[in-house]
User: What shape does this take?
Amino acid sequence: KQWYQRRVRGKQNIQSIHTPLHYITLYQHTIIPMKKAILSRRETFSSSHRLHSRSLSEQENKEIFGKCNNPNGHGHNYVLEVMLYGPIDPVTGMVMNLSDLKKILQDEVLDVLDHKNLDLDVSGFQDKPSTTENLAVWIWEKLAKKVPLLHEVKIHETENNIVIYRGD
Assistant: This one.
């Protein structure tokens, strides 16, 4: 567990806390457990791709991926849900500032994926199939560097097909 200690004396500098906190020490000896919450942000993007593995023959790709192996590809209107889990900052009342999270998602994920061909335009999918599972891992790796409280990446490829990745 990480600890954050701060003595409270009148109006001191209030600082943003960007590391996971579990307890806060006030007045030197009083330990107050911090309440935790899950924060979720939902975004949408449209991308095309072709399910195809270079490790398989053309026939094996057709058998495994079916119509999704169409050489011309196909598209999806993806729904992305990103969840953070952490303590509620006692000063701001937030797990993370949603404006900051929105900007990170825009810069790291949406600008890269929206209206792109995953196989041709996105670094990381030239040598592996652009499945929703691999897309969830790709998004996690982009966000984990900038969002330390990242808990879950959920992608709705269709209304019925959903992938959840938690960094394992």
In short: The chain has a mean pLDDT of 87. Strands lie at 4-5, 23-26, 30-33, 36-49, 74-87, 116-117, 150-156, 162-165. The two ends are 20 Å apart (CA to CA). The longest strand covers residues 36-49.
